TrEMBL record, chains A, B:
PROSITE patterns for the chain: HTH_LACI_1, HTH_LACI_2
Coiled-coil residue spans: none
Organism: Butyrivibrio fibrisolvens
Full protein name: LacI family transcriptional regulator
PANTHER family to which the protein is assigned, alphabetical: HTH-TYPE TRANSCRIPTIONAL REGULATOR GALS, LACI-RELATED TRANSCRIPTIONAL REPRESSOR
SUPFAM superfamilies registered for this protein in UniProt: lambda repressor-like DNA-binding domains, Periplasmic binding protein-like I
Amino acid sequence: MAVTIYDIARLSGVSIATISRVVNGNPSVSDKTREKVLAVMKEYDYTPNPFARSLQFNSMKMVGISCADIKDDYMARMVSILEKKLHEYGYDYMLLCSGYDLESREHAVDLLLKKKVDALILIGSQFLGNCEKDEVAYLHRDAEQVPVFILNGYLENNNIYGVLGDDRNAMYNATESLIKAGRKKILFLYDSESYSSNQKMAGYEDALRDNGIPVDGNLKLKITCSLHEERDLLLMRKDLEFDAAIATTDELAVGVLKYAKARMLQVPKDISVIGYNNSPLADFVEPELTSVDTSIKDMAHVAVDKMMECLQGKNVEHKTVIESRLVKRCTTDF
Amino acid sequence: MAVTIYDIARLSGVSIATISRVVNGNPSVSDKTREKVLAVMKEYDYTPNPFARSLQFNSMKMVGISCADIKDDYMARMVSILEKKLHEYGYDYMLLCSGYDLESREHAVDLLLKKKVDALILIGSQFLGNCEKDEVAYLHRDAEQVPVFILNGYLENNNIYGVLGDDRNAMYNATESLIKAGRKKILFLYDSESYSSNQKMAGYEDALRDNGIPVDGNLKLKITCSLHEERDLLLMRKDLEFDAAIATTDELAVGVLKYAKARMLQVPKDISVIGYNNSPLADFVEPELTSVDTSIKDMAHVAVDKMMECLQGKNVEHKTVIESRLVKRCTTDF
DNA sequence: CTGAAAGCGCTTACAG
DNA sequence: CTGAAAGCGCTTACAG
């Protein structure tokens, strides 16, 4: 049996109320008493029972984080930074990997809520599905219980907060860089119709249009298969002609490198390639991958800071956009 | 205010004891009462307050997982599988990324314990430091409170359990494959002196010896820097001659590929390379990396299964070894 | 089969 | 500055 507040009270010769006060830093305790109690607490290595505290406060100082898959490097990096930032505020977190379909996402968030977390952080705009009414209904419901922070997505609701990269602009600029470097047929690879994917596609299309290049539907390719299948698919699509590729993730971009290698094409000369997220993978592959950096760190920090303000009852902006920048490496020649 | 057991009792016209019984599946409730209560619970969307339950049971059904860094793909894969397995048993987890030094590891485990987790899972033998007495003292202390499961490490203690890959054998076999393929000067790259790193080194050395090749200390290289620094370091070490490299992680092995590329050496012809962990990275790089697969899945499953037996008071083996296998790709020619 | 009551380990008005 | 007491939302012997 662990030592309880009763033990410490008895051993210090005071009431449990006083023990509670010194534990909680209540100033109305005489120095003498406080020291005595502190000494006893230390001697017996007393830690307040967190379950009892939670019951009182109706909070465990715990936030629920859900992401599709912690194996995804982007999400792992996000969780890693969120953790550090949350700890600064004395908060812990429960992680729940939901997988990629909307139903399991709903389920994951539901589980987290049952644990009475203080707030929710959802990593990835795919929690919004295609943003249709019935698909986001669960989020509106959940937001009645706790504040919900969506990283890379946004949904209008009094208790939902979005922190997003400027995906449209970033993709616009990246695409335009390719165009300015003389590329005319730019493949666009994406893996979902999430909010942020759609933003990226919009940026891509707008850049083409603004530069007088018609958008060719054939050059927009949705890829949901593995790396090698992606390569093979590109190899089979002999009808496709392209001198550059831009992808919504680094992993998809690497598929193009595999394709180039198989066709003995030179990168960046024959095909230029740009990825997204600036993951460590970008350095590992050869040639090293030019990629958009989405400032994961800023995003995570802003989200946690805002969440804390929110939990203190302060008024907080509902939408924050974080700037991205292009990290040039060896798969582009500008 | 959420609906409590008192509300449900009042609305169902029974006592809170009965509500508790149906919530907990106690059979001594009449069908009629049960149905009534269930209906009311459903109508009002009642969920028992987890804090109150925890206080009663002195458990949240929560295990603490600590790893050095969730951004590391190996650890992320491990956590991902642990999560699924834990959920099967109705357990959640708190994750704490400790960083790589021993002091922060102690601290991380301490925090987890303060939260009164039911058990501890530590990913990576580095939690053992160099296995010296004072370095593992904290683990012996922690094990007095909860069962401790070390993935990839082992420490003799009544309440500490190890689930490990057969790192020595795996490295022995991999090294021997290189030798049998005609390689004589095999570089060994490692990044720490952890228990499992040491096992790997032992396997490497034994394979050399058993095949009549003297161990050359110069060919054992500890690398703790970044990918590009590793490459540059190899480029600078003009004294080193090697026709193969074997590494304790895939990341380190990729450094050799970078080196080969810079020196215009052919892989696997001029240099053969073997990595460790069979991470997704092995497929991304070019040429694709031969790597040892350590059966993360088996390891995680065994750990959780054993932990559950342990929590049920059953007697459990303290050490389980999981077999590894070599996945041959394009950086070796056997 | 069911309920009244005690207890899990805390916090916090309230009174002194 | 300090303590007695009520209460947070549950579970579980115990009695009927």
